Amino acid sequence: MTQNSPGRAIALKVSAVFLFMVMAALIKTASDDVPPGQAVFFRSLFAIPIIALWLWQQGHLHDGFKANNIMGHVWRGLCGTTAMAMTFAGLALLPLPEVTAIGYATPMFTVIFAAIFLGERVRLFRLSAVALGLIGVMIVIAPRLSVGSELGSVATLGALMVLVASILRALVQIHVRRLVQTDSTSAIVFYFSLTATVTSLLSMPLGWVFPIKALAWTAPGWGPIGLIICAGLIGGVAQIMVTSSYRFGTASMLAPFDYSSMIFATLIGWVIFSEVPTPAILIGAALVIAGGVLIIWRERQLGMDRSKSKSITAPPGSPN
Q1: Domains of the chain: which residue ranges?
Q2: Could you read off the pLDDT of 40-93 as tens digits, one per residue?
Q3: Which residues, at least 6 apart from 69, have a Cβ–Cβ distance to it below 8 Å?
Q4: Cα 209 from chain centroid?
Q5: pLDDT given for residue 132 in this prediction
Q6: I need a surface site. Which of 1, 105, 188, 236 has the fewest CB within 10 A?
């Protein structure tokens, strides 16, 4: 059931975006000791009881367990889990605002993939908005790919990882648009956390005690593990708040508030990590946000309100 309550919808959406940024900060803090695969495992595992409790309270627990398109959930899980792991790896190597800005590329790639895989008609206006957004992304990552920097540097690797994660998240949104035709929102949310938990276990042989930056075999202590567990619990609450926000407002109304993540990322990065966004990040992020807002506006004009599918995916720029 839905009801029109814009104030409540916006409050839920902005709060969810903030919690996703807090989750990212916790993962970034623990990244020296906890490798990406292990971070994905704990983030996903400890989100499951939060989501299950919410589904039970809403009376949708049975729907959450019912999966009609098994392979659809598998592919969505594989793409989403890989995107999450690459984003977490990027958080260990890049400033939080930069990861957030690159993550804004997801809606641009979604428009492209929707035309390729779903047969959506994309006219000049949306193509221009996509081009504007991709130019912004290139401005953000250009310093990492410049002649003066080594292509193999950890910062360059981090930027490429986050960019690939944005592409994978766009594929996830395409999968979700197909899944909502056969499965409930409850099932899609629940089975993603389940498949991400199981899939992340495959990274265990690669060394769960092998931090991405330390390059040394050291077992993480309870402190870093506790941070990741908190990140999982917060991520589960944030996902519920995103989904709940679409009960009170339309996707076209709520979508622009996804970009409040840059404000939160900048503040958290400055206060906790002493990270100050460079002019390239700010200019590039502004262009990407402008392109995203234009796409949102155009889709609203065309009546393409994808409330059900958007309620399942994390906001652009957030670490899934």
Answers
A1: 6-310
A2: 998 999 999 999 999 999 888 888 889 899 999 999 999 999 999 999 999 999
A3: 178, 179, 182, 183
A4: 25
A5: 95
A6: 1
Mean pLDDT of 223-234: 92
pTM (whole model) above 0.85:
yes
Nearby residues of 87 by Cβ (< 8 Å), 6 or more positions away: 99, 103, 161, 162, 165, 319, 320
Residue keyed to tokens 């779903």: 118
Q: Which residue has the tokens 């595992």?
A: 45
Determine if residue 196 is left, alpha or beta; phi over 0 gives left, psi from -120 to 50 gives alpha, anything else beta. Answer: alpha
Pick from 24, 25, 26: which is nearest to 228 by CA? 26
Tokens representing residue 266 in the block: 């900048």
Handedness of CA 285, 308, 56, 188 (dihedral sign): negative
Question: What is the three-class DSSP state of 84?
Answer: helix
Question: How many Å apart are CA 211 and CA 36, to the nearest integer?
Answer: 8
